[in-house]
């Protein structure tokens, strides 16, 4: 009977860990899911930045902060999955690079917003659109 | 004229008070992922809540006692206890989600992190429950919740392709699997028919001293106010379907859920919608906290309610306070309030038969209802809903596990 709480604790502890990738296909699926989740967040940021002049500054700040935290979380979680082969190493590098670009861009916009507002919202939105497109394409390719 | 005013005010209060954090989250999530393909669930949910809220209001008006007061008497202490435990657990979970929702709305308005707002929201909510009259409390937050009409205005302003939205009604996105579709259908139904609504509605009837003469007003509130609230839910889903579905963006946070209102109705629209979300979630905080006190006090036969002085209903107020403290502590663990909402919706769905079966049974019992028992139509529809709710309850948790909570 005493083993039940121990097993339960162990199960809960392990369920909190990142699940491993069993093979290249599994790793690619995890990468695709991460890319799609990141693309979704970047699209949110794009919509808010594009029409930022019609929205309140604290609201846009909160939204961009959440997107930045999400992107950081996705990169951290995906980065924690060990690639099972050299082929998967390439997938890992490509996606982490894209995620890093997305995070840097959103963080940059947050800094601009906290100072004097986003200087060129149309250009910033176009850049985010491009990154979101690349993330989506990566996700579709890996599925 | 006075009666028309009372009916209008009641309808507007029911309309503005219909949407809470669960409706908001479920409709925005579903709209962004499934377009309007789950709109039918909102219709099913609104018909269901109208049906059972009318019954519970009638029970309160005719017997002078709320539903939970009769559950133990009619079903026995053991079954009543199962009902009580499930209802209280879901109530506290929903209460945590509502407090988190109100704090998130304040964060959006001020830029100050929501966790700093949580204790303040809880304290003010408790003070309102302690000091403010029931009717004033209900009307102020119900009417303030009307600001959420901005979603309908924003949808219009966004200029959606109405034909496309119409096409989505019968065509779910092909890349979403059937289990995920049904999981969200269940969450949406859980949002529309949240159990606390019935406990609060019937206890509120007793708080406001409803009698048989108030039945017409009670029916108007339910049969007009709730469907209008359902219309708001559809507007929220429509906004999300218009803005997010074409770019495959899925909403995860409250700020994202409100983005279409800002894009469609501009800064004033965004201010109004944030105000509306605060009013709706704060109002629901009061309702869920009071419902916790109502259910426990009514089960154990304690004096309850705001119609007596707090000193006379000390145990009722102690339970309400304990519920608020537990829910606040849960949100202060930094658990995501939106995730809490999603789980509370599914657990609500799993407990739906426990809530609504006693309502159906008591509304049919001539010992309590005299000649005001259910008619054939209400019974037939009630029976169909009970079958549906049992199926939903059986499927809710397995689907949650199978889809990893809708991922």
TrEMBL record, chain A:
Q: Which UniProt keywords apply?
A: Signal
Asked if the keyword Signal belongs to this entry, the reply reads: yes
Q: Which domain of life is it from?
A: Bacteria
Q: Which residues form the signal peptide?
A: 1-23
| Name of this protein | Lipoprotein
TrEMBL record, chain B:
Report the locations given in the UniProt record: Membrane
What InterPro entries has UniProt attached to this entry? Answer: NRAMP_fam
Q: Which GO terms describe its biological process?
A: iron ion transmembrane transport
What's one GO MF term for it? manganese ion transmembrane transporter activity
Instruction: Look up keyword Ubl conjugation and say if it applies.
Output: no
Q: How does it sit in the membrane?
A: Multi-pass membrane protein
- Tell me a GO cellular component: plasma membrane
Mind telling me which Pfam families this protein's record contains? Nramp
Top-level taxon of the source organism = Bacteria
Q: Does the keyword Signal apply?
A: no
Give TM segment ranges: 38-60, 81-105, 111-128, 140-159, 181-201, 222-245, 265-286, 316-335, 341-363, 384-402
Q: Which UniProt keywords apply?
A: Membrane, Transmembrane, Transmembrane helix, Transport
Q: Which PANTHER family match?
A: NATURAL RESISTANCE-ASSOCIATED MACROPHAGE PROTEIN 2, SOLUTE CARRIER PROTEIN FAMILY 11 MEMBER
NCBIfam families xrefs = Nramp_1
Q: What is this protein called?
A: Mn2+ and Fe2+ transporters of the NRAMP family
């Amino acid at each position: 009977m005493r083993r039940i709480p121990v097993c339960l604790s162990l199960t809960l502890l392990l369920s909190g860990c990142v699940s491993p990738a069993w093979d290249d296909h599994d790793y690619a699926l995890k990468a695709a899911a991460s890319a799609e989740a990141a693309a979704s967040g970047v699209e949110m940021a794009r919509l808010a930045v594009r029409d930022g002049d019609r929205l309140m500054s604290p609201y846009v700040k909160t939204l961009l902060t959440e997107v930045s935290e999400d992107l950081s979380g996705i990169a951290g979680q995906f980065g924690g999955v060990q690639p099972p082969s050299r082929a998967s190493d390439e997938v890992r590098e490509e996606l982490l690079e894209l995620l890093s670009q997305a995070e840097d861009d959103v963080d940059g916009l947050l800094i601009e917003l906290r100072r004097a507002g986003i200087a060129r919202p149309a250009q910033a939105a176009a850049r985010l659109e491009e990154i979101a497109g690349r993330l989506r394409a990566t996700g579709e390719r890996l599925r | 004229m006075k009666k028309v005013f009372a009916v209008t005010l009641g309808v507007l209060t029911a309309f503005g008070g219909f949407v809470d954090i669960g409706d908001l989250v479920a409709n925005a999530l579903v709209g962004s992922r499934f377009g309007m393909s789950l709109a039918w669930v909102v219709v099913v949910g609104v018909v269901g809540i109208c049906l059972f809220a009318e019954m519970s209001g009638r029970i309160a008006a005719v017997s002078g006692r709320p539903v939970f007061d009769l559950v133990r008497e009619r079903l026995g202490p053991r079954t009543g206890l199962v009902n009580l435990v499930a209802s209280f657990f879901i109530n506290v979970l929903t209460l945590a989600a509502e407090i988190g929702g109100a704090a998130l709305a304040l964060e959006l308005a001020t830029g100050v992190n929501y966790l700093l707002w949580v204790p303040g929201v809880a304290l003010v909510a408790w003070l309102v429950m302690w000091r403010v009259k029931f009717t004033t409390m209900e009307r102020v937050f119900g009417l303030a919740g009307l600001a959420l009409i901005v979603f309908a205005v924003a949808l219009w302003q966004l200029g959606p392709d109405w034909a496309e939205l119409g096409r989505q009604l019968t065509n779910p996105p092909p890349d979403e699997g059937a289990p995920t579709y049904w999981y969200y259908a269940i969450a949406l139904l859980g949002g529309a028919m949240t159990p606390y609504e019935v406990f609060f509605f019937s206890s509120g009837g007793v708080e406001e001293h409803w009698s048989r003469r108030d039945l017409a007003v009670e029916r108007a509130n339910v049969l007009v106010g709730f469907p209008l609230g359902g219309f708001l839910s559809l507007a929220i889903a429509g906004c999300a379907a218009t803005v997010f579905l074409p770019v495959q963006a899925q909403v995860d946070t409250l700020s994202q859920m409100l983005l279409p209102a800002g894009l469609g109705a501009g800064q004033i629209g965004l201010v109004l919608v944030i105000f509306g979300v605060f009013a709706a979630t704060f109002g629901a905080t009061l309702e869920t906290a009071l419902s916790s006190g109502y259910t426990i006090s009514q089960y154990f036969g304690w004096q309850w309610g705001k119609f007596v002085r707090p000193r006379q209903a000390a145990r009722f107020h102690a339970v309400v306070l304990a519920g608020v403290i537990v829910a606040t502590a849960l949100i202060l663990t930094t658990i995501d309030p939106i995730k809490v909402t999603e789980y509370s919706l599914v657990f609500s769905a799993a407990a739906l038969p426990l809530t609504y079966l006693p309502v159906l049974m008591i509304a049919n019992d001539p010992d309590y209802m005299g000649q005001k028992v259910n008619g054939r139509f209400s019974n037939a529809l009630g029976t169909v809903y009970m079958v549906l709710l049992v199926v939903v309850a059986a499927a809710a948790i397995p689907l949650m596990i199978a889809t990893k909570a809708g991922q």
